[in-house]
Design brief:
The structure is a homodimer. By secondary structure, chain A is an alpha+beta fold. The first copy, chain A, has 13 helices and 23 strands. In chain A, the strands form 6 sheets. In chain A, strands 3-7-8-14-11-10-9 form a 7-stranded mixed β-sheet, sandwiched between helices. In chain A, strands 16-15-17-18-19 form a 5-stranded mixed β-sheet, sandwiched between helices. A 4-stranded mixed β-sheet of chain A has the order 20-21-23-22. Chain A is globular and about 85 Å long. Bound molecules: zinc ion (ZN) (2 copies). Chains A, B: GO terms for molecular function: ATP binding; proline-tRNA ligase activity.
């Protein structure tokens, strides 16, 4: 793709994070902006779509191993269905795109392009559940949704259309539904950690910020390099509110009618944005090996008289790696010099580079260079696939450790309003403070510094909860530990 | 799912194909109709979506092995983009759904919900192609599209929204683009044959029925049990018409600007409809083992005193099959008798049933029953996984042979207008006739019996082409062999 020819990131990640991010997305061929008249939309190019395919594959196999089935519901939702949901979940008022004319005719009822699908999925779940033997019932949909937000576009973080999955389940008991909520949160956490090399914080949203209609909204939060938090995925225990509204009842073993408990959970392509933002640097994209389109690039370095020997040696290694299932690219282009190739593959985020010159070919070795820190190692030709795999593990470990260190350094404590404001103002990141649970105390912080409570620890993590302290803002008795942060 | 309880197909495949099909779709839990106000849409339930996932997986891996990358383009297309395509491809006037209001505001330009995406994909391909080194460029999208046709809904065959893939490629030469067109047609044919156990006919659409703007439209056609032909997938060689209109040019090795040759190709969930229609029977769904959600169901048959022994034996076999990667379901429900279970799994299309009673447990055997014809075989417990796999092969072979025989018996020849009309009227299926190439001669047949020319053999299959005969309709010199058929 020829727009690769303008190589080189010019913006600084540290000083100009937003512009740097936009430049990486464009120059690493991840996305283009959509045509005029469609601001807020993006074209997801193959290299970014492949990241989404790997996230999808990873998560989908976790889902399927734990009883989830995929389905597909219509793209449109009749207005009356959305209205019905509004009645249940006060405050739910998505900014939607409407279809009023189709096939050259005005529709009797206008149709929303789905902003989320629970208002159409839940009535069908109600139809499909009759007996306790039908439970638990778990349905998931991978699709795009449209929310017509007017805010500035940031590819993968904020777009009017985005790709995501939404899971919806029904259960006989509260315990079973709660276990489901936690199971999905665990799977989101594992996906961030194992696939994306990103540590996350787990917690619940405060009462006033949970999903409308939910009993509990849980979240995984990831810290971005600019000190802001990203909500990485959410998992909701919905109690019986949706089941009551949509009549999801079942007959139990004694033939009595019972109301079901439901959950829902979702992860969007924002995960791609968080991934790019976390690991990449001023040379371009950085990717963990498990998700990288190419895991290793082999760059042969020759003069006219060594070309044949070096190339043959490089091809042999490439073949061995392919046979071992490694995603390897041999960059044998004649028209580019090695320095150009190094820069290009660094920009594209290939985790490990292998350099092969006549010395390596003669000695039966190869030089491996790690993308994140440029560390270079000479390795033996023998068992090359195993060696390369172990270097992938090292690169993963480096990326994870750096993100983990950044997170650990950016969770601070505060015990007064001034302290909260000052700490976030100076450092960003998370500030933990004892909190009375009252939204007004959050509002005071929000109004002054645009930080909010992104999570409180889950009840099962008792140690974190400030039962004995006073609220850092109002001085009343604290019942929670609030994590304040600026947020995407 | 409780609606399974109304078991049993009541309509006849032979005498009432349409109603029989609708009943199979509903009772095998494949799809529901969408809510009121959304006629023409369906809810794709997990058992049908799993069929789509396997078709997608099969085809996607063929695509990726041959250089295709997936991408994702916006759901909406500005009206001016669609208009631009209309200019190129006279006659292209999809019935679209329009978004005119979004986020509580009227849009400056209305947006079409994509009826197909070439009008937005092609301009980006134009942006991405600069040099001959960027070619071939191959992009594919898996997504849903919306076409507001007013005709009656038939799940998977005819719905206002459907799932499909569309591939778009650009090439330096005509030869390369034509090879691509044939490569995709081959892959569609292989998917029908290998995965769906359906033989297809390959051919080209007549000049007057090709995709607007295309140089050549190729097709795979499948014969349905009611004697009608289904267009199973299409692959278009677009020549340079799209490249000219959208300015897809590249600089060649001599730095001269050249126009690219492009192709496009697509397959929709109509493949699911054709699959259901072809193999299923008056007992319900029939599926080839490669695509079936459950490939085999183990039904233990016990009395109170033999239950423990039989169940333990059945569990051991189930485990062996699972370990070998077989998709197996052990139906150990207490509340259902074996006869009920047999009927239910027949309805659901499980290709092989294993019956295990006390005799089998004592003798170290098992009874295998083939879904398509009820053939029953006693087999040894030893090497059970291998044995079961070979029975899968047998079931596949039976399904394929039956469909192949049906196809072979339903391609007939005719050499006069009366003969064409009479043969299609009496038998349905395909009627081959020498044809002059003039649309008027097709119109005569169409007007009288609603049959059309669904394909002509491809040029590379010279033997099929009637160069020496006269057109069966007008008597002028024939230049093609036309395959007339009624069509979905
Ligand atoms: Zn307070
Ligand atoms: Zn004629």
């Amino acid at each position: 793709m020829s727009d690769e020819q303008e190589l080189g990131i010019t913006e600084s990640k540290e000083y100009n994070t937003g512009e740097w991010y936009a430049e990486v997305v464009q120059k690493a061929n991840l996305a283009n902006y959509a045509p005029e008249g469609m601001s807020g939309f993006i074209v997801t190019r193959p290299r970014a779509y492949e990241l989404w395919e790997r996230i999808q594959g990873h998560l989908d196999s976790l889902f399927k191993d734990t009883g989830v089935q995929n389905a597909y519901f219509p793209l449109f939702i009749p207005e009356s269905y959305l209205e019905r949901e509004k009645d249940i979940v006060e405050g739910f008022d998505p900014e939607v795109a409407w279809v009023e004319t189709a096939g050259n005719q005005e529709l009797e009822e206008r149709l929303a392009v789905r902003p989320t699908s629970e208002s159409i999925i839940t009535p069908y779940i109600s139809q499909w559940v009759r007996s306790h033997r039908d439970l638990p019932l778990r349905v998931n949909q991978w699709a795009s949704v449209v929310r017509w937000e007017a805010t500035e576009t940031k590819p993968f973080f904020r777009t009017k259309e985005f790709l995501w999955q939404e899971g919806h389940t029904a259960h006989a008991t509260r315990e079973d539904a709660w276990a489901e909520t936690m199971r999905r949160l665990d799977q989101y956490e594992a996906t961030y950690e194992d696939l994306l090399a990103m540590p996350v914080l787990r917690g619940a949203k405060p009462e006033h910020d949970k999903f409308p209609g939910a009993d509990t909204t849980t979240t995984v939060e990831a810290l971005m390099p600019d000190g802001k938090s990203v909500q990485g995925a959410t998992s909701h225990y919905l109690g019986t509110s949706f089941a009551e509204a949509f009549d999801i009842t079942y007959t139990d073993e004694d033939e009595e009618s019972q109301i079901a408990h439901t959950t829902s959970w979702g992860l969007s392509w924002r995960a791609i944005g968080a991934l790019i933002m976390t690991h990449s640097d001023d040379q371009g994209l950085v990717l963990p090996p498990a998700i990288a389109p190419e895991q290793i690039v082999v760059v042969p370095i020759w003069q006219a008289d060594t070309k044949e020997e070096v190339l043959e040696y490089a091809e042999g290694i490439t073949e061995d790696l392919e046979d071992a299932g490694v995603r390897v690219e041999l960059d044998d282009r004649d028209e580019r010099n090695p320095g150009f190739k190094f820069n290009e593959w660094e920009l594209k985020g290939v985790p490990v580079r292998m350099e092969i010159g006549p010395n390596e070919a003669d000695d039966g070795t190869a030089t491996l260079v790690h993308r994140p820190d440029g560390e270079s190692t000479e390795v033996d030709r023998e068992d090359i696939a195993e060696t390369v795999e172990s270097h992938f593990d090292e690169v993963y470990a480096k990326l994870y450790a750096a993100a983990e260190e950044n997170l650990a350094q950016n969770v601070r404590e505060a015990d007064s309003r001034a302290d909260i404001l000052g700490t976030i103002g100076q450092h960003g990141g998370y500030v933990k403070a004892p909190w009375c649970g009252d939204e007004d105390c959050e509002t005071e912080i929000k109004d002054q510094i645009a930080a909010e409570i992104v999570m409180v620890p889950l009840d099962d993590d008792e140690a974190e909860i400030h039962h004995d302290d006073d609220c850092a803002i109002c001085g009343d008795a604290a019942v929670e530990t609030a994590y304040f942060a600026k947020s995407y």
